[in-house]
Design the sequence.
C-alpha cells in the first residue's frame, strides 16, 4: 500500500507546508502590488465577490488602500522566515547543551537541566512581550527572542535521547578506539538523535507562528509597514464589522498554517518514532 493511502494526512499537510514555502520564496513574483504601497482612493475596498469589490484587488484593501492579497503573501514570507531561523537557533543551542548534559552527566548535567527547568517554567508569551518592549520591535530581535524561548525544549529532548544512545555498543567501541568525548557526541550521538530533534522542530513551527503573530498584534513584533499576519489582524480589529476582510484573511492563514505544521509533526512522529509521543506530550 502506498504512503498516500496509508498516511493521507501526512501528504496533505506536507503539501500545504510545501505550498506555503513556495509562496514565501516567490512572493515578489506572486504579489500583484507592493505590500507597503497604498492608494487612499481605493481604501477599504471589499473582496471582488462583494458589492463594491473589484478584480483589481481580489481580497480587498485595508484602511490605507494597500492590497490585502499582496500583504498576505508577503506575510507568509515573514512568518516562515521567523519560524525557520528562530527554530534553527533554538535547535543548535538547545541540542548542543542537551547532548553535553546527557553524555557527560554529573554536575554539568545538573546545571544545564536546572537552567532548562527555569526556562520551561517561564510563561513564553509574557516573557517575549517583556523582551520585545525592552529591546524594541524588529525582525532580528523577534528571532532572537523566540530562539531564546525555545532552546529548552530542544535541550530536554536531546538530553533524553542522548541518555538512550550512549548505552549503545558502538559508543563503547568509539571510547575503546580512543575517540574524545567531543568527537563521540557530535559524530556518533548527534546523527542518532537528529530524527527526534527534526520532529520537535516541525512541531514548534506552529508555536513560533502564534508567538510571532501575537507579538506583532501587540506592536512589539515585526514593525510596520512590513507585512506580518499579526500586525494585519491588529490593523483590522477596529474594522471587524465594516471591513472584516482586513483581519479575517490573515487569521485564516495563521489557522491553516498552524494546523498543517502540527499535523505534519504528528504524522512524522508516528512514521519515524511513535515512542516519541510520550516524551513530548502529544
Sequence:
Amino acid at each position: 500500500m502506498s504512503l498516500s493511502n496509508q498516511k493521507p494526512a501526512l501528504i496533505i499537510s506536507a503539501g500545504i507546508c510545501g505550498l506555503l514555502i513556495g509562496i514565501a520564496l516567490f512572493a515578489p513574483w506572486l504579489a500583484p502590488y507592493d505590500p507597503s504601497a497604498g492608494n487612499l482612493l481605493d481604501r477599504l475596498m471589499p473582496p471582488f465577490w462583494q458589492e463594491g469589490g473589484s478584480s483589481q484587488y481580489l481580497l480587498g484593501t485595508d484602511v490605507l488602500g494597500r492590497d490585502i492579497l499582496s500583504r498576505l503573501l508577503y506575510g507568509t514570507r515573514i512568518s516562515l522566515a521567523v519560524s525557520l531561523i528562530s527554530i534553527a537557533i533554538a535547535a543548535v543551542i538547545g541540542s548542543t547543551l542537551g547532548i553535553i548534559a546527557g553524555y557527560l552527566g554529573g554536575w554539568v548535567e545538573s546545571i544545564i537541566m536546572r537552567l532548562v527547568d527555569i526556562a520551561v517554567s517561564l510563561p513564553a508569551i509574557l516573557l517575549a512581550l517583556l523582551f520585545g518592549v525592552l529591546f524594541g520591535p524588529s525582525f532580528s530581535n523577534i528571532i532572537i527572542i523566540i530562539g531564546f524561548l525555545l532552546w529548552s525544549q530542544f535541550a530536554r529532548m536531546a538530553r533524553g535521547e542522548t541518555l538512550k544512545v550512549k548505552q549503545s555498543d558502538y559508543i563503547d567501541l568509539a571510547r575503546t578506539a580512543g575517540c574524545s568525548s567531543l568527537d563521540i557526541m557530535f559524530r556518533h550521538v548527534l546523527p542518532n538523535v537528529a530524527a527526534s530533534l527534526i520532529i520537535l522542530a516541525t512541531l514548534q513551527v506552529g508555536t513560533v507562528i502564534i508567538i510571532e503573530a501575537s507579538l506583532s498584534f501587540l506592536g512589539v513584533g515585526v514593525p510596520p509597514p512590513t507585512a506580518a499576519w499579526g500586525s494585519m489582524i491588529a490593523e483590522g480589529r477596529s474594522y471587524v464589522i465594516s471591513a472584516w476582510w482586513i483581519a479575517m484573511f490573515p487569521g485564516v492563514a495563521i489557522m491553516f498554517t498552524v494546523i498543517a505544521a502540527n499535523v505534519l509533526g504528528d504524522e512524522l512522529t508516528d512514521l519515524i518514532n511513535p515512542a516519541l509521543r510520550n516524551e513530548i506530550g502529544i
Notes: The CA atoms of residues 78 and 138 lie 12 Å apart. The two ends are 27 Å apart (CA to CA). The longest helix spans residues 181-218. DSSP finds eleven helices and no strands in the chain.
